Amino acid sequence: MSSKARAARGVRSTVADTAMTLAGLGLGAVLALHFAARGHAAPNGAAGWLTEVGRISGLVGTYLAVLVVLMAARIPVIEREVGHDRLVRWHRLTGPWSIWLIVMHFITTLLGYSALTRTGALAQLWSFIVHVRWMLPAVVGYALFVMVGVTSYKQVRRRMRYEVWWVTHLYIYVGIVLAFMHQVKMGQAFMVHPLAKVFWLALIGGSLACLVWFRWVLPVARSQSMGLKVARVVRESDDTISIWV
Fold first, then answer.
1. Which domain, by its residues, includes 109?
2. How far apart are CA 152 and CA 157, in angstroms?
3. Is 161 inside any structural domain?
4. Which residues, in sequence order, are CB contacts of 55 under 8 Å at separation 6+?
5. Planar angle of CA 172, 120, 112, nearest 5 degrees
6. Which end is more exposed in the chain, N or C (fewer Cβ atoms within 10 Å of the end residue's Cβ)?
7. Global pTM?
8. Which residues are within 8 A (CB) of 64 and not within 5 positions of it... i.e. 6 or more apart?
9. What span, in angstroms and rounded, lies between the C-alpha atoms of 17 and 54?
């Protein structure tokens, strides 16, 4: 291996390590928001512990979803130095954890409040939807997360056309947006200090802005500036299509 290749590999390794370190620090900051808001008092009883697990899993699950968005944003400096293949592996590893934690948040929070109010889970869910502002969009967002999670399993994905699977996958971004307001309006971590809301808005808004800019706006702008046009579309076989530009 040449010295230039070794140097390039060293740079990629350093950037990857830095990215993972920043992701870890971000996770620590998210957990710090929760424990700073909760204080030193331990959760009280089964209901308290269930809602505690729900709050933590909701925060961490959403944070991992933000990381998934950033991995999918194809930010040039990250993709160039870390490598597309490695980002895809990280994406596939992080995505399921995000969805499972969001599912855990939904279930444990619902069970915790059901135990606290001594009502059934379905009755408590209906009460949330009817009486709690921004809860209906959050429930819809949760359903979208579950849909994306189910369609990501290999057995399900094999039965779907790639185009359908790809469009379905995009709904996770809609789910993040729908769940945002219930987080900052109801989340214990965001009720103590206004800077917590600013941090969360910057985190989610920044990640979605990167996605829109680098995946849609920038490619379209470059295509327009270069005058690229599709000359023809040729079907080479049943599963292969060539696009002449």
1. 3-219
2. 6
3. yes
4. 34, 105, 109, 187, 188, 189
5. 65
6. N
7. 0.84
8. 94, 95, 97, 98, 101
9. 30
